[in-house]
Amino acid sequence: MAEKLTLPPPSANQTYVTISALDGGSLTLPESLFITDADPSKRTTVPSLCFLIRHTSPSTSKTITLVFDLGLKRDFTKYTASQQHHIAQRQPTSTSPDVADSLRKGGIQPEDIDVVVLSHVHWDHIGTPSDFPNSKFVVGSGTLNLLANGGGYLYPKELFNHDELPFDRTYELPPVDPGAKTAARKQTEHKWETLPGFGLDVVDYFGDGSVFIADSPGHLFGHVNLLARVGEGRWVYLGGDCCHDVRILKGEKGIALYSDGCGGSRSVHVDTEAARGTIGAIGKLMREVEGVEVVVAHDGGWREENRGRFLPGTL
């Protein structure tokens, strides 16, 4: 019998965080590339959801502000030629407001953000890092090597800006496999741990059980998600690009496969089987733990139903 999934109980002086959704622009996706049994002519404009997380220490009353993902760049000329070619296939797009504007409209200056955690470094999630001159950047293991060298013929380095991040302020999470090699200049000192019954490894980012970064392999090298405790018995799981349609998480649709141009098949994920494993772990979280809300980055339905939870509102 599979081990039942349980999340850590609150401590005596448990810290809870607040989460506010942020607009990070929008793009248009052909459904046939993302879900099974799709109408080949259907294209859907979806958001690139980003989030502000505020963590206040009960002992010091100091608040740390963390942004998860940065959405689209407002200036498309800052993308590489290869990225712009790809973006041309994702029109229409919108970059107003972007994350920096969304923060300002909510009364927060981008310069005051303490930490930026990127789920991964695809063009519609990396945004404009230069808007955050004082932030520490945290990325998943393997991200810096991907930016510098690409990730194989389907993910050439031309699809990434090698100097995208402020490397003096960028920290990479260590590999889950302690024997794995990494090209990271700086690594966080976090240690991976397991939660009973959960198929993804996590790090307790603040060390108080309030925010866990989850290693979420499959979509892209270094892809991570975030699990946050927002109240007694209430959690929010930010799934990034674990999938591009919530029906996949619910088991109503599968991951679409299409030609890789070399006689084989591929999906929008760098490792489809690993992506299925990540999706299975998140699906189990949804089924077995009460009080967990799962939000993926491109869920247009969630955005329309939850406009009041965008900054200054909260989840």
TrEMBL record:
Needed cofactors: Zn(2+)
Record's compositionally biased regions (Polar residues): 83-97
Metallo-beta-lactamase domain span: 45-237
Molecular function terms from GO: hydrolase activity; metal ion binding
Region (Disordered): 83-102
Keyword terms of this UniProt record: Hydrolase, Metal-binding, Zinc
Statement: the UniProt record of this protein carries the keyword Metal-binding: yes
Keyword Transcription regulation assigned: no
Superkingdom of origin organism: Eukaryota
Protein name in UniProt: Metallo-beta-lactamase domain-containing protein
